[in-house]
Amino acid sequence: MTDMTVDDSAADRLESALSGRIDRSAMDTVANLAHQVSLPELTRLVHTTTPLQSAVLFRVLDKDGALAVFENLTPSYQADLIQNLREPEIADIVEGLDPDDRAELFGELPANVTRRLMSGLDAEEREMTTAVLGYPKSAIGRYMSPEVLSLHEDWTAAEAMEVVHSRIDGPETVYLLPVVGPGRVLLGVVSLRNLIAADESTVISEIVRDSISTHALTDREEASRQFLSHRLIAMPVVDEEERLVGILTMDDVLDIVDEEDAEDIARSSGSEPLDRSYLSSTIVRLVRSRIVWLLVLAVSAILTVQVLEVYEDRLDQVVILALFIPLLTGTGGNTGNQAATTVTRALAVGEVRVRDLGRVIWRELRVGALLGAVLGLLGFLVAGLVYGWAIGLVIGLTLLSVCIMAATVGGLMPIIAKRVGADPAVFSNPFISTFCDATGLILYFSIATAVLGLS
């Protein structure tokens, strides 16, 4: 408890020192405080301060500490930080990164900076980094580690262990070892545990087992979800000819899934994801992430206003109908959003595929009918007792219809988005809410016209 209190206090004082004027004495203070702060706290401070303040903090960290903190930053924030570091400091950090992490960083930097940093790498590191950069940003090959320790099928366990010992410090992981044949064609994998347990004379081909692999051009989220669904510790990556080109590890998969989930959550609420922490984002960046969606939704909401204008004469005849508009539009939007969120998640984890469209529509139609029956009965009783049974019948039938429509549309839209190659999250909550508002009002006034005999 005492150590934690000291660390928190030092972190607060370090944050305060970084926020003030930085001169020689201030740099000494920052250096002294930085040595009292834990690595997670240093990472948090670098991630939540401005790039210039972060650069000041970086300059007082030793090489290992700076690299450890740098690896925990998002690529976009790494790129901002690079702009404020001196060339020797940048070279040391870039050289210490794994090829896949280095490729992510280079993807965020200007071309001239990337060329300069690439020229400072040795030939082997440059070749591996170039190989990863050759894949599209959306492909899993961009996030694999090309530095993979593979075994040949005709080696003995003793020979394989000798290779593992000699190259233990190079690869990102040695817990799962791909086995290759002629031309580096992937044959399977051997776990380090099984290799250690095998008799020294055992040939690798005798203990190899089938592996779950992915193609280097596979979409990064699809490959990551497959990785997690099979509870893997590593997964070989192959090219079109099934040749081993790299390996995907758990830390890379978790980063991808976190980024994709953050993007889905942001877009489902009508905004763009931030590429850096909230506190270190400028006001302009925060506004930019939200304004486009607000404008789109504002324009689309005009449809709802036009629907009300069309049925204005019905409202004049039965003013009481206006009281229930928020209830009905809110119920439709919430029902649609629930269905969309459920189906979007099912698509993400592979539980639902595009070809399941018919099954999803049929399920959501029944779910919507049951939800609508419960809410409609409740609405009929409450509204009927207070405003008369004719109004109660209008409200009950509208709730039933709106729930069926909203649940069906909510389940349908993410699959359509997936089919046309769009992000299902974009098609979900914001647009579904607007669609259900307008369509729900049309259903509401149509039912009211029929039941109450309006003209």
Automatic annotation (TrEMBL):
It comes from the Bacteria. Pfam families: CBS (PF00571), MgtE (PF01769), MgtE_N (PF03448). It is a multi-pass membrane protein. The chain crosses the membrane at residues 291-311, 367-387, 393-417, 429-454. Keywords: CBS domain, Cell membrane, Magnesium, Membrane, Metal-binding, Transmembrane, Transmembrane helix, Transport. InterPro entries: CBS_dom, CBS_dom_sf, Mg_transptr_MgtE_intracell_dom, MgtE_N_sf, MgtE_transporter, SLC41_membr_dom, SLC41_membr_dom_sf. One of its GO terms (cellular component) is plasma membrane. It is found in: Cell membrane; Membrane. Its main location: membrane. Residues 144-206, 207-263 form the CBS domain. GO terms for molecular function: magnesium ion transmembrane transporter activity; metal ion binding. Acts as a magnesium transporter. Belongs to the SLC41A transporter family. Homodimer. This is Magnesium transporter MgtE. It comes from Brevibacterium aurantiacum. The gene is mgtE.
